[in-house]
């Protein structure tokens, strides 16, 4: 009796098609978790805000409000353009559409360097913060490098898993880190602070002081990552509305929350004493405050939550980098292999592996050189990354009015001209502030600072050179760079067509 072996039917239909990112998956709150987690509120408050108080006095809370207002103005034009340009490359696509393909390719390279700088440097902070936590809580010395390497593995796995996994994890971590700050603020408010509650922090005489410039520099960097809302457009539900809402919520939350927390810590010590307290123990200011007003157990918990806050920030930036890399691979600028998406998790896992390998190489290079994980790995790598992202915001703000001059649309002049122009002026001033105070951020020599500052314009210029090369050697890639995706948004806004809401004018041959 013969048996005919069974054969598997040929795979056809949707199952045989290459997998894509999960569409219509993320709601407004999910995207807010990603972008606010990238800013690492607890780490920014406990680690940086005390220095802002030392240098800017009791007017420091107003600096965070001013930065928040500036970025809210930027968000007006940014979110307006996000309704019309549906490319997953966000910043670089907006810049390409508004300022031309060469500027867009320069911006794409700057985005990859900026976001990688913001993530990879933080592995040094993870190692040093974990070592400090172990020392403070258990008296155990832990070398920073094994912790950073373990962090690389954890973050790779988080990015490898589905976007829902990342959103849920970041939601839990973000609630925990903001919760401990709310607990501190509540304790101060209930007990009335050291000398009663005062609004002197917002008095013009305390805000308009020379140290405010340094506070503003710190404040702008504290919002890093909020603009990454648009990167998740392809995975968002009702992206036309979700991206806009998530951006405004993230900016409003960070600006108000930062200002509120810094103000409550000032009240914890009193207007007359807080600067001295912050000067005497900059790194321990928040821990001393929460010990006094809540209890020692809360200070111990804050130590642990700072570590989880750093992990949340790393995962948020890792996901953002993966999506930028995916978009560039789909454009043809990066190798097509990077465009592969995991069939089960629907994650851009190949670019995630590449990003983790890059992080591993940088971390090991600094370790082999005997560099300090905080003062060198973190500060030297983070600083050009942060300035690079601010430069991208500036270019995007400039691109908005140029784009809307070239398309047919129904948007008002306030959104398409006034707000982005004002934002461009304010962002240019913010970049100048950060660059002029770079020694405060890095603590490095003038030579090192000059090199760190030069990385940003050099990266953009290299991108312009790459654009010329692409135009000459791969004209088909250059021609479609920054264009609209072939697939429409999963859920167009009610009453709106599935395609782009604006009709582009004929392409400028000069681009």
In short:
The protein is mainly α and 511 residues long. The chain contains 20 helices and two strands. It has a single domain, classed as Amino acid/polyamine transporter I (Up-down Bundle).
Structure description:
The protein is an all-alpha fold and 511 residues long. The protein has a single domain, classed as Amino acid/polyamine transporter I, CATH 1.20.1740. Helices cover 70% and strands 1% of the residues. The chain is built from 20 helices and 2 strands. The chain has helices at residues 28-39, 41-47, 49-56, 60-82, 91-99, 101-138, 144-160, 163-191, 204-207, 212-221, 239-269, 274-280, 285-293, 296-331, 349-368, 373-405, 413-436, 438-442, 446-473, 475-480; strands at 407-408, 503-504. Strands 1-2 form a two-stranded antiparallel ribbon. Helix 4 packs across helix 16 (373-405) and helix 4 (60-82) packs across helix 17 (413-436). It is globular. Residues 1-20, 481-511 are annotated as: Disordered. InterPro entries: AA-permease/SLC12A_dom, APC_superfamily. It is found in: Membrane. It is a multi-pass membrane protein. The chain crosses the membrane at residues 31-55, 61-79, 91-116, 136-157, 169-190, 202-226, 246-266, 286-317, 349-371, 377-404, 416-435, 447-467.
């Amino acid at each position: 009796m013969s048996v005919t072996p069974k054969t598997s039917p040929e795979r056809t239909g949707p199952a045989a098609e290459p997998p894509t990112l999960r569409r219509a998956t993320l709601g407004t709150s999910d995207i807010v978790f990603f972008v606010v987690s990238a800013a690492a509120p607890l780490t920014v408050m406990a680690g940086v805000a005390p220095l802002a108080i030392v240098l800017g006095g009791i007017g420091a809370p107003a600096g965070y409000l001013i930065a928040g207002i500036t970025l809210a103005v930027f968000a007006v034009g940014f979110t307006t353009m996000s309704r019309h340009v549906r490319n997953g490359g966000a910043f670089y696509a907006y810049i390409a559409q508004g300022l031309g393909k060469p500027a867009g390719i320069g911006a794409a390279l700057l985005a990859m360097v900026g976001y990688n700088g913001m993530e990879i440097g933080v592995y040094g902070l993870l190692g040093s913060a974990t070592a400090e936590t172990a020392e403070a809580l258990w008296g155990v010395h832990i070398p920073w490098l094994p912790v950073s390497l373990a962090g690389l593995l954890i973050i790779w796995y988080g990015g490898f898993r589905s976007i829902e996994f990342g959103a849920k994890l970041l939601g839990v971590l973000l609630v925990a880190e903001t919760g401990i700050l709310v607990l501190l603020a509540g304790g101060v408010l209930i007990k009335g602070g050291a000398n009663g509650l005062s609004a002197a922090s917002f008095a013009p005489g305390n805000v308009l002081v020379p140290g405010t410039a340094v506070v503003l520099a710190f404040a702008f960097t504290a919002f890093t990552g909020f603009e990454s809302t648009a990167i998740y457009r392809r995975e968002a539900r009702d992206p036309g509305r979700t991206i806009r809402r998530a951006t405004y919520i993230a900016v409003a939350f960070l600006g108000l929350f930062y200002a509120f927390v810094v103000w409550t810590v000032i009240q914890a010590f009193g207007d007359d004493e807080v600067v001295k307290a912050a000067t005497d123990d900059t790194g321990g200011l928040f821990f001393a405050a929460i010990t006094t007003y809540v209890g020692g157990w809360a200070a111990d918990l804050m130590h642990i939550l700072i570590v989880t806050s750093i992990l949340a920030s790393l995962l948020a930036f890792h996901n953002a980098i993966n999506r930028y890399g995916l978009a560039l691979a789909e454009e043809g600028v990066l190798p097509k292999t990077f465009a592969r998406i995991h069939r089960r998790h629907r994650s851009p896992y190949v670019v995630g592996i590449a990003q983790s390998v890059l992080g591993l190489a940088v971390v090991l290079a600094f370790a082999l050189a005997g560099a300090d994980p905080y003062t060198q790995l973190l500060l030297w790598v983070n600083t050009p990354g942060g300035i690079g992202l601010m430069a991208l915001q500036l270019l995007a703000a400039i691109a908005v009015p140029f784009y809307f001059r070239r398309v047919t649309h129904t948007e008002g002049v306030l959104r398409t001209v006034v707000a982005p122009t004002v934002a461009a002026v304010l962002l240019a001033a913010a970049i100048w502030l950060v660059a002029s105070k770079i020694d405060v951020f890095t603590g490095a020599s003038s030579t090192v600072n000059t090199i760190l500052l030069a990385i940003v314009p050099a990266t953009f210029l290299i991108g312009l050179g790459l654009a010329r090369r692409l135009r000459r050697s791969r004209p088909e890639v250059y021609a479609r760079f920054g264009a609209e995706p072939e697939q429409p948004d999963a859920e167009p806004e009610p009453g709106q067509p599935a395609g782009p809401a604006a009709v582009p004018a004929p392409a400028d041959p000069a681009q």
